[in-house]
Specification:
Layout lengths: L10 E5 L8 E2 L16 E4 L2 H10 L7 E7 L4 E2 L1 H4 L10 E4 L3 E6 L8 H16 L7
Antiparallel strand pairs: 1-4, 2-7, 3-6, 4-7, 5-6
């Protein structure tokens, strides 16, 4: 695995988990999405917007959070998005099998409109009906 050559910090991770600076986000735990299977990858983005989607769509009871993260090892473009939906990776979505270190939390951010969120959740529900699990 090699680094995504075009990727430059800062990097973000959206979730509902309550984390602190220095904590690690690592593969091997329940995914924030879908059937909450054990995650093979840690996902992150170079755009705040993609991280906001991550926080808004994450399952769980905690509040939506955006963390500034630093990958501790090699990472690649996220093929769930770049190969299938957005060639060229405009969402700057990445994944790594190495942990992400939490550097801090984005204190203020604006979520998507209720209409945008409903549209995305409806789209994900249609994919689920078709048997598509977006995150491995």
């Amino acid at each position: 695995m090699t680094y995504a050559a075009h990727a430059t910090p800062p990097f973000y991770h959206g979730t509902r988990a309550d984390l602190r600076p220095g904590d690690l986000i690592a593969p091997g735990f329940a995914s924030n999405y879908g059937q909450r299977n054990q995650a093979s990858w840690a996902y992150f983005s170079g755009t705040l917007d993609a991280a906001i989607w991550g926080a808004e769509l994450a399952q769980g009871e905690g509040r939506e959070r955006i963390y500034i993260v630093e990958p501790s090892g090699a990472f690649v473009d996220d093929p769930n998005l770049t190969d299938q939906k957005f060639p060229g990776n405009p969402t700057q979505s990445y994944r790594s099998q190495a942990p992400l270190r939490v550097l801090g939390e984005v204190a203020e951010w604006q979520g998507h409109s209720p209409e945008q969120l409903r549209h995305m959740k409806d789209h994900l529900a249609r994919l689920k009906e078709q048997g598509v699990e977006a995150i491995d």
